[in-house]
Amino acid sequence: MKRKRLDRDRWGFHFFPYYQTRVETDCFRGLACLIRLLDGEPQYWQMPKAGKVMVAGPGMCWLQLIPDDRRHMITAKYLPDGQVAVWYADIIDGIAYDIDGVAVFIDQYLDVIFTPQGDLMIDDRDELDAAYKSGELSKEQYEAAIREGKRVVREWCRDLPGTKALCDGVLKEMNRRIEAGEKTFKPCPFPGYEQ
User: Fold this and answer.
1) CB–CB of 36/20 below 8 Å?
2) Which CATH architecture has domain 3-179?
3) In sequence order, what are the beta bridge partners of 95?
4) Whose CA is closest to 108, among 87, 88, 124, 86?
5) Other C-beta atoms within 10 Å of 94: how many?
6) CA-to-CA distance for 12 and 5, rounded, in angstroms?
7) Residue 34: CB partners within 8 Å, gap ≥ 6?
8) Quick one: which of 83, 84, 40 has its CA closest to 74?
9) Per-residue model confidence (pLDDT) at position 16
10) 168 C-beta neighbours (distance < 10 Å), count
11) Which tens digits make up the pLDDT trace of 53-71?
12) Model pTM?
């Protein structure tokens, strides 16, 4: 399984503003991270219902949410006009923190992709199956990943207006904190870390 930093440094996004903090609202409790994309060439995905969807480009922001007591991370990819282009859920085997405090998730291969227009795709099931067959994943990890994928569909994909409202609320709270000058990159403490 791969470790992936939420500042998306391997994609070159670590040059963009990155915010990481804990959020506790009526609708969401967990880790919230925000990347503001300032430049770069627009990138698109072709979706069956939504058509050509911009997933990265100037003026976009990516809101990444890891809810408490869940083994997934939802990324809401916001267009410059404030609309969500697509949601992307990574099934994860947990989170950790790098020495600089940036949150890291342990990718468990399976992904769920969905759009406001009703697209729903399960991605990388073949990678999950291959990891299980090779012995990289135990039977328990494999079955847990499949269950978590089903949970994402059940909890996030059945009420898209509710999902959008939840994400908008967290984004609004993060923007409020940023505009108020709060320290919004808050590394979570771990052994050996001193703030």
Assistant:
1) no
2) Beta Barrel (2.40)
3) 105
4) 124
5) 11
6) 11
7) 17, 18, 19, 20, 61, 62, 63, 64, 171, 174
8) 84
9) 77
10) 17
11) 999 999 999 999 999 989 9
12) 0.89
CA–centroid distance for 46 within its chain: 20
SS3 for the chain, per residue?
Answer: CCEEECCCHHHCHHHCCEEEEEEECCCCEEEEEEEECCCCCCEEEEECCCEEEEEECCCCEEEEEEECCCCEEEEEEECCCCCEEEEEEEEEEEEEECCCCCEEEEEEEEEEEECCCCCEEEECHHHHHHHHHCCCCCHHHHHHHHHHHHHHHHHHHCCHHHHHHHHHHHHHHHHHHHHCCCCCECCCCCCCCCC
Q: Which of 22, 15, 7, 1 is nearest to 104 (CA)?
A: 7
What's residue 77's pLDDT?
97
Cα angle for residues 14, 160, 28 (degrees, 5° grid)? 60
Going by C-alpha positions, the residue among 111, 174, 95 that lies closest to residue 146 is 111
- Count the alpha carbons within 13 Å of 107 in the hemisphere toward its beta carbon: 20
Residue 98: predicted pLDDT: 86
Whole-angstrom Cα distance, residue 142 to residue 129? 8
* Amino acid present at 57: G
* Count, residues in the chain: 195
Q: What's the token pair of residue 22?
A: 């804990």
The residue type at 188 = C
